Amino acid sequence: MRPVSSGAVDFIDVRETNLAVVLRFIRREAPCSRAEVAAGTGLNKATISNIVAELITRGIVVEVGASEERRIGRPAVMLTLDGRRFTALGLEVNVDYLSAVMVDLAERDVLTWHEPVQAAELGAEGCAVRLADLARRAMGEMARQHREVLGITIAVPGLIGTSDGEVAEAPNLGWHEFPLVDRFREQLDDSSVALSLDNDANLGAVGEYRRGALAHTQNLVYLTGEVGVGGGVIINGALMRGSSGYGGEVGHITLMQDGPLCGCGRRGCFEALVGIGSIIQQAAPDLAGSTAQPLTDLAAKVAEVARRAEAGDPRTTAALVRVGEWLGRGSAILLNLFNPQALILGGYFVTLAPWIMPPARRTLAAHTIAPHLGGCQVALSTLGFTAAARGGASSIIDAIDTARLPLPRSGSAAHR
User: Fold this and answer.
1) Containing domain of residue 52, as a range?
2) 393 Cα distance to chain centroid
3) What DSSP assignment string belongs to 210-255?
4) At 133, which CATH number?
5) 47: burial class by Cβ within 10 Å (0-12, 13-18, 19+)?
6) Which of 1, 84, 85, 373 shows its CA 20 to 30 Å from the CA of 409?
7) Could you give phi then psi for residue 33, rounded to 5 degrees?
């Protein structure tokens, strides 16, 4: 908890808050004039003039020319975000890959990397090393472009508390109470960059909310379709976290009493019925190998399942119908609980959608209490396996927009 502030610090806090208010308005309405910013934020014109001048000096906002729509008086000089200097990085570690997405202040992609790994084989310490190496390479690329990375958010498929930077549990990675942020910072060897950690489904939901095909849908549920099945829930435009940060663990809703064993140690979980490991075990058991060993080469195995389904293999298609039915049952619980405007399916669900979605939609309709799914649109993610990393990068931008992360001050020369 923050200590009581002095008057001087309070003044600085108010100014930083006003800077963030103006920045949010420009992000939402750009290109816009100073007069429009004043009218939209309620701040007076003199304050807006000073704040905009400071944002321009800091390399955050840029003038982009005069409006052609004004008919009386001088044309208004328009403002937009300056994407040349500052960036934010989102990273994800999952069972079979690492992802990195860098965005500028306008949330335009600067780089997108996706690398296969076997996270269980690397172990927690090895993953921290690989993540830090990925971050260093990305930051080095930004340095060559004369850009500065303001913050990094890491996505992990597991239970993440609200503030301590520790992964409490990540069963599919084999991690328990691992201080990932501390280990990552040690490996990164850079104390200046802001770091945060969050669950992959939460950040996937943020990525969909800010960057997906149904962006800015105020109430949505995002389901990962990986070895794990997590849920990120956006309610009235805000991420639902729960009291300790563990909300959204929908993959561990019990759907089948005494059902198949889940990675969490329980039986019959949603994840144990529709996670990609279960799908491969049901649809192509010859590809699954020993249940005691983690699955490897998931992308290739899912592609083979899709090939067999396309060829009409009866065992494969029957298994995918069953998976779709369980997906519909589990999703119906979420629609009944949250009444979202959109349910977005990500990961390998997208690859297998031609076979799992028809039974999923039928079962979803049969088990959702509200007529017409309560107005919910069921959609496939267009962000691929970068949704969580994109959400991580966007979470840094959101922290700046809401004054939780201070706006960068002028210092090194901006990129020209």
Assistant:
1) 7-81
2) 8
3) HHSTTTT-SSEEEE--SSS--EEEEETTEE---SSS-TT-GGG-B-
4) 3.30.420.40
5) middle
6) 1
7) -95, 165
Would you say residue 406 lies in a domain? Answer: no
Same domain, 75 and 91: no
Half-sphere exposure of 338 (CA within 13 A, CB side): 27
Cα atoms in the Cβ-side hemisphere of radius 13 Å centred on 364: 22
Same domain, 71 and 90: no
Domain match, 117 and 43 both? no
User: From CA 64, how far away is CA 81, in angstroms rounded?
Assistant: 9
| 271 and 374 both lie in a single domain | yes
> Six-digit token pair at 271?
């994840």
AA identity, residue 382: T
* 360-377 pLDDT per residue, tens: 999 999 999 999 999 999
347 φψ region: left (φ > 0), alpha (ψ -120 to 50), beta (else) = left
Query: Is 273 part of any domain?
Result: yes
Tens-place pLDDT, residues 19-34: 999 999 999 999 999 9
- Are residues 368 and 360 in contact, defined by beta-carbon separation less than 8 angstroms? no
pLDDT digits (tens, 9 = 90+) for 292-303: 555 678 999 999
Mark whether 72 and 166 lie in a shared domain: no
* 3-state SS class at 293: coil
Q: With residue 176 as reference, give the H or E element that holds it.
A: strand 175-178
3 phi and psi, to 5 degrees? -70, 165
Scanning the structure block, which residue is given the tokens 């609980």? 337
Q: What one-letter code names the amino acid at 395?
A: S
The pTM score is: 0.90
Would residue 120 count as lying in a domain? yes
pLDDT mean over 309-325: 98
Phi/psi for 344 (5° steps) reads: -115, 125
